[in-house]
């Protein structure tokens, strides 16, 4: 009897969560689709070529705004590398693509708290730039790049 | 209903309405682009739906099996190294869209999951196991290995920083 109540209670909680989250997820997907359609990825390719630091900041910014599948960041990154963009800038783009989510910020704020979401995204943005430089310099240090 | 849930419920509907308004405005300005965006939306939604089903099944199991006491022991303030390892591995192994996981983490937070471990979980999701062969193909094996190591290290650092900053603000109030 008590077990049945526990199952019912858990199911009720899950359904309540579902209805709380549903508008956020649908809104999120609608917003993502809108941005991906209005600002296609090809636009970003022509923006690079301003030196390592500016390119890295640009790469990190594009990755932060982008909301597509991570696979798209590898494809774009590969294209950019082929086009002469530095590995540091490409790494920053690839890392922020999966760690920073400007488009997801409203959903993250609503479910995990605004302060948490804002701090997490700022720290992730800075960390991505650090990781980009560290990765490439580590490879260079060991003569692997 | 907890305060955070009421806030997210109202805010969620408002967010959806605002997004729909943006579509209406774009529809008036450029109907062709709006149809393109909606087609993209249905395509993505079809991909996300099975994942959402899995996440809600996990939420149901978590509600059924995870008592706040147990969550606090494994993912709370006292969880220690066990908590960090769980968060990093959980993030690496989690698949699908991140916003589906926000719901799960929000539930665990209410049951006592530590803020630092939520941030660590979200950061370590950057290590995408199923996509590693592709990353190796595009950037090389050594690059992939070095990048993944830094991502794991920074997932812990970012967790500590996010918790510190969030708590500093809360304590000042």
Number of strands of chain A: 0
Low confidence ranges of chain B = none
Classify the secondary structure makeup of chain A into a structural class.
mainly alpha
Largest Cβ-defined interface:
A-B, 67 and 69 residues
Oligomer: heterodimer
Main beta-sheet annotation of chain A: none
Low-confidence parts of chain A lasting 5 or more residues at pLDDT below 50? none
Distance between the termini of chain B: 24 Å
Largest sheet of chain B: none
| Shape assignment of chain A | elongated
How much of the sequence of chain A is in beta strands? Answer: under 5%
Helix content of chain B: over 70%
* Morphology of chain B: globular
Instruction: Tell me the fraction of residues in β-strands of chain B, as a range.
Output: under 5%
Count of beta strands of chain B: 0
Mean pLDDT of chain B: 83
N- and C-termini, Cα separation of chain A: 65 Å
Secondary-structure element order of chain A, as H and E?
A: HHHHHHH
Helices and strands of chain B, in order, run as: HHHHHHHH
Give short descriptive properties of this protein.
A: 145 residues, mainly alpha, 7 helices, elongated, B: 173 residues
Short description:
Chain A is mostly helical and 145 residues long.
């Amino acid at each position: 009897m008590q077990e049945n109540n526990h199952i019912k209670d858990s199911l009720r909680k899950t359904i309540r969560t579902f209805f709380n989250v549903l508008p956020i997820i649908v809104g999120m997907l609608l917003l993502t689709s809108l941005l991906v359609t209005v600002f296609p990825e090809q636009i970003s390719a022509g923006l690079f070529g301003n030196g390592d630091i500016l390119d890295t900041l640009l790469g990190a910014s594009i990755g932060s705004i982008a909301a597509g599948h991570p696979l798209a960041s590898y494809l774009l990154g590969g294209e950019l590398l082929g086009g002469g963009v530095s590995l540091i800038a490409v790494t920053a783009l690839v890392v922020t693509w999966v760690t920073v989510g400007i488009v997801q910020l409203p959903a993250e704020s609503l479910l995990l708290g605004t302060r948490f979401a804002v701090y997490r995204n700022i720290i992730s943005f800075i960390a991505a730039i650090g990781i980009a430089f560290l990765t490439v310099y580590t490879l260079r240090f060991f003569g692997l790049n | 209903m907890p305060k955070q849930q009421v806030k997210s419920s109202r805010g969620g509907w408002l967010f959806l309405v605002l997004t729909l308004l943006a579509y209406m405005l774009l529809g008036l300005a450029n109907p062709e682009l709006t149809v393109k965006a909606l087609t993209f939306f249905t395509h993505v939604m079809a991909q996300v739906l099975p994942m959402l089903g899995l996440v809600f099944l996990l939420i149901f199991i978590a509600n059924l099996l995870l008592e706040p006491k147990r969550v606090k022991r494994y993912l709370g303030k006292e969880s220690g190294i066990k908590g960090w390892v769980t968060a990093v591995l959980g993030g690496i192994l989690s698949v699908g869209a991140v916003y589906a996981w926000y719901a799960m983490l929000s539930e665990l937070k209410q049951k006592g999951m530590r803020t630092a471990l939520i941030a660590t979980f979200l950061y370590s999701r950057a290590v995408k196991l199923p996509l590693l062969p592709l990353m190796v193909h595009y950037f090389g094996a050594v690059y992939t290995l070095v990048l993944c190591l830094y991502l794991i290290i920074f997932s812990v650092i970012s967790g500590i920083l996010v918790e510190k900053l969030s708590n500093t603000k809360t304590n000042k109030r």
